[in-house]
Amino acid sequence: MEGVAWAAHRFLMHGPLWRLHASHHTSSRRRLEGNDLFGAAFALLAFGLFWLGARPGWDVIWWTAAGMGAYGLLYAVVHDGMVHRRFPLPVRPARGYLRRLAQAHHLHHRTHARDGAVSFGFLMPRDIPTLKRRLRERQAGRA
């Protein structure tokens, strides 16, 4: 699921659907943003796949929907709750994997434009020194 999410983020959200995703790269105190439509669309797709997968012999479709649902739940809790603090979550990433995940996502947000961002995945972040180097290189290339 992470690979699909990475590709959708990189090539759709930072591509032709940037107009919706741009709301996520700007500071806002709104409860909802245009970017939230992606979560709704993926949830509808998962519900549709659950419906299709309920037929005998369509188990693979059902399990695909289950994977999408589990990833979406993790994403909502970790991304919206822990990283962006859109709802209260007692966990603050101080070290280890969760800290690296939050740092990688914050590095992604250092770019407020469609191009030049790093770290398009979410649950499998790259190491922070590599992401910082890539971000510097991309910013130097635009100057």
TrEMBL record:
Keywords: Carotenoid biosynthesis, Membrane, Oxidoreductase, Transmembrane, Transmembrane helix. InterPro entries: BETA-OHASE-like, Fatty_acid_hydroxylase. Residues 4-122 form the Fatty acid hydroxylase domain. The chain crosses the membrane at residues 37-54, 60-78. It comes from the Bacteria. The keyword Transmembrane helix applies. Belongs to the sterol desaturase family. This is Beta-carotene hydroxylase.
